[in-house]
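# nightly structure sweep
# worker-07 picked up a monomer target from the shared queue
# config: single-sequence mode, recycle default, output format = structure tokens
# input follows
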Amino acid sequence: MNLISSKFWFRLAMLVGLSLELTTFGAMAQTVKASSYGTPHESEADSKAIRPFQVHIPEEELTDLRKRILATRWPDKETVSDQTQGTQLATMNNLAHYWANDYDWRKFEAKLNALPMFVTNIDGEDIHFIHVRSKHENAMPIILMHGWPGSIVEKLKVIEPLTNPTAYGGKASDAFDVVIPSMPGYGFSGKPTTTGWGPDRIARAYGELMNRLGYKKYVAQGGDWGAIIADVMGVQQPSGLIGIHTNLPFVVPSDLEMAIQAGKGCPPGLTGEEKRACAQLDFFYKHAGYALLMGTRPQTLTGLADSPVGLAAFMLDHDAKSLALITKAFNGQPGGLSRDDVLDNITLYWLTNTPISSARLYWENKYPFFGIKGVKLPVAVSVFPDEVYEAPKSWTQKAYPNLIYFNKVDKGGHFATWEQPKLFVDELRNGLRSLR
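# output follows
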């Protein structure tokens, strides 16, 4: 075959391929209401396909949501003047009024649909994810993993700064390719119908996802459950994973964690920094009733699937500092999070009917919340002051023997990616630079 003929057939093949890709996009783009993923008749090749995804919520579901909000049967006001009894009635009144009258889901839906979203079947379950490639060469692939009561929503603010660093004060060499999956049982991913989808299985699925996307070398990042999964991936060491970054390091000595859980308080012999962390952990365990309930009786939370305001009150009460931050937003004093930020996330849970399926992860989990997992890969750690506890460097160095970065920042809390996106991006750039 001569050169001209070769070029002709190559171009023809490219045009046919493009045509097929566009046809496939139109035929296979999925919506929330029309999902037929993972059918038993799929071939192995089909089951590994990466299918485009779009969100189109029927208007009647949004109408029903507003009706339910307006029909809320309200409880009595709390008998204290602070948040010691949980999410306060005034906060929920303000939230409900804004949600029913001013919040615009379609605005957020359009934002999601402007992003490249996909679904692929892994280990029998559909995994939904956002995948944004950088225009810069040699961008570092990173998988950003959310937790509860978070979702892909909490990661959206960092996509542009990570993939397009030169537009946000960075260098081309700071660029990342970004992958943001929804955990099974969360958002637009499939809801497991059998047991077994705990952190280990999710970690394996995420490793397969990155390999399926063609990445030979990548890093993982997480907070909350995403941090547990990052640690577990660090232990499993799937092909291509070269290191992790966490903003919720799991470094608490097992004897100390067990003592706190047993109500014995903090042991003697701790440094000042360690005493502070121990006291924070003690406070958290005494006020993490949501985790105890989801970890033992998730199905009992059926009411969360029936009342949007009940769901919102439950989701807001994750930790004291996050609740205080969100309360300010609905009292007209926005800080790191706006009212729309908060309601984008809660509405996603409501419209996908995932309050119970997401809660089951606590029931599936077999790991101590803050215990050491045994990661040997390189680890970068960023400690945010309003996290549920501030990990001491002494514990962190013991828990992660290959610690490549440790930094305490001056602001931000449990939802660091969401609350302080610029600071978070700087931490990722600095923490993972040595792995490029």
